[in-house]
Design brief:
A two-stranded antiparallel ribbon has the order 1-2. The protein has helices at residues 2-13, 24-33, 38-46, 49-52, 57-64, 66-75, 83-95, 102-125, 129-144, 151-160, and strands at 17-18, 21-22. The protein is an all-alpha fold. The protein has a single domain, classed as Hypothetical protein af1432, CATH 1.10.3210. α2 (24-33) runs antiparallel to α3 (38-46), α2 packs across α8 and α5 runs antiparallel to α6 (66-75). Helix content is 70%, strand content 2%.
Length: 166
């Protein structure tokens, strides 16, 4: 399933790039951060498809199942004017999720992996967006953290986003 999800996502993203690289580089980075579980891998590859392409949730459900389609929808930024408003709406949604629901657990895990992949990329390249992620971290963590779910990813994310000492 993960190979099919990777192929589907790469085709859906088409010529989009992640910085100067093909978009699939970002998708591979997210998938590398989640366990080798077919559902987690599929959501990792598909996590930006609804947000950044014309693919509909029903198409994902038909190809990959309802739980995966729901997880992808859960990690997709809601419509709102501006990043702050989108993230505020997303954080409300993430805050309501529990790990007992399969789609919710998949979504929470992949959302953290996605954020860590983005932060790693910024930290490695000196990208100024790292400051934005630092500023957003407390609210993101309050919304998405669940004890016992991908704690190692959270540990690294917390360490990378520690406020810089003056």
């Amino acid at each position: 399933m993960s190979d099919a999800a990777r192929t589907f996502a790469a085709e859906a993203h088409g010529a989009q790039t992640y910085g100067s690289q093909p978009y699939v580089v970002h998708l591979d980075a997210v998938a590398a951060l989640v366990p080798d579980d077919p559902s987690l891998q599929a959501v990792a590859y598909l996590h930006d498809v609804l947000e950044d392409t014309g693919v509909q949730q029903s198409t994902i459900a038909a190809r990959f199942g309802d739980d995966i389609a729901e997880a992808v929808a859960l990690v997709t930024d809601p419509e709102a004017p501006g990043r702050s408003a989108r993230k505020a709406k997303l954080h409300v949604r993430l805050s309501a999720l529990g790990v007992d629901d399969p789609a919710s657990a998949l979504a929470l895990h992949v959302k953290v992996a996605d954020r860590l992949a983005n932060v790693r990329c910024c930290a490695d390249s000196g990208d100024p967006r790292l400051a934005m992620y630092r500023q957003e971290h407390q609210e993101f963590r309050a919304a998405a953290y669940r004890a016992g779910l991908c704690d190692a990813l959270w540990d690294e994310l917390d360490a990378l986003l520690q406020p810089r000492s003056q």
